[in-house]
Every structure is written in C-alpha cells, then in structure tokens.
Write a structure and sequence with these properties.
Length: 177
C-alpha cells in the first residue's frame, strides 16, 4: 500500500512524501520477507520436509523491483526538479477505497398499490385448490373417482435390426437392406 501511495504522491509532484512512503514500503517488505522465511522454517519442522516458499511468490518478486524503481525515480526527480525535503513522519494511508468503486445506493421498498389487499393475497392461496394423491396407495378396482381402472400399457414387440457385416459404401452412411 505504501508503494502505491508513493506512486500516487509522485504523480501529484510531492516527491519528498513519496520518498518517505517508499522507504516505509521497503521497511514493511523486509519485515514480511523475514516473516515468510520464519513461517517456512517453522512449517517445515512441524510437517517434515520443505515448506511453502511464500517469499518467492510472484507478488514478492514483482513488488521488490517496483518499490526500488519507483524510489529511484523519486530520488532522481527530487534531486533535479523538486528539491523537496523528506519528512520524518510517513504520510497517512487512506484506507477508505474511493477510486473505481461505485457509491452504494440506499434501497427502499416501493409502496404497495392500493389494489393489493389482504383479500387479493388470499385469493392466491394455491394450497386450497391442490389435492395430494399418495402414489404409494393402490387404487381400488373401480378407482377413486368411480372410473374404470387404467389398463397397463401393452408391450410392443420390436423387429430385430439386421446389420451387414461390411461397412456401407454409399455417401450417406446408411445401410442398404
């Protein structure tokens, strides 16, 4: 965060503050690398074998040159152009994200229309019109409604398909009988 703060301060032509932010970034980078190496050492002892090399992750490999390159640029531009003093206190990070985020809108339920009353909601009670028939119950011979019981569907005898032993030679791939 301090690295990106330094880049943003450099764009605002505040080189002294940018240098201080990048120094802070280097300090936290060194601390995080030491913690990663200690974690790997502890994890390897506890689990046996080698631990994850977090300090060699792509994030760390890209961050270190970015911090160094940006700090060198700030020092160079401060020496040639701006001549700002480097403050002892680091600039404050604004932790509230504002760039690229949409501001939230408060949601309010729309008012109910006057036609939607308790009676109109009760008219949609579908549970009143549904009857449940348990499929596990066997119907009487006459059926529950007094109709004849349903006849089982008769089996259909299919004709066997004759295949030729050779592949068809026509263009469509259909077999000629």
């Amino acid at each position: 965060a301090f690295c990106y703060l330094g880049e943003s301060l450099l764009e605002q032509e505040k080189c002294g503050e940018a240098i201080r932010a990048l120094e802070e970034s280097e300090k936290f980078y060194d601390i995080s690398v030491k913690l990663c190496k200690e974690y790997r050492k502890q994890k390897a002892q506890a689990m046996g074998g080698t631990g994850a090399k977090i300090d060699e992750h792509l994030f760390f490999r890209k961050l270190q040159p970015l911090v160094k390159r940006t700090k060198d640029k700030c020092v160079r531009e401060n020496g040639f152009i701006f001549h700002d003093t480097v403050p002892k206190d680091c600039p404050v990070l604004e932790l509230k994200a504002t760039h690229g985020l949409v501001t939230p809108e408060e949601f309010a339920m729309p008012p109910l229309h006057e036609l939607w009353t308790a009676e109109s909601y009760a008219a949609f009670n579908l549970a009143q019109n549904v009857t449940f028939v348990d499929p596990r119950k066997k119907a009487d011979k006459k059926g529950e409604s007094g109709d004849k019981p349903e006849e089982p569907i008769p089996m259909v005898n299919e004709k066997p398909i004759k295949y030729s032993e050779t592949d068809p030679k026509n263009q469509s791939g259909c077999q000629i009988q």
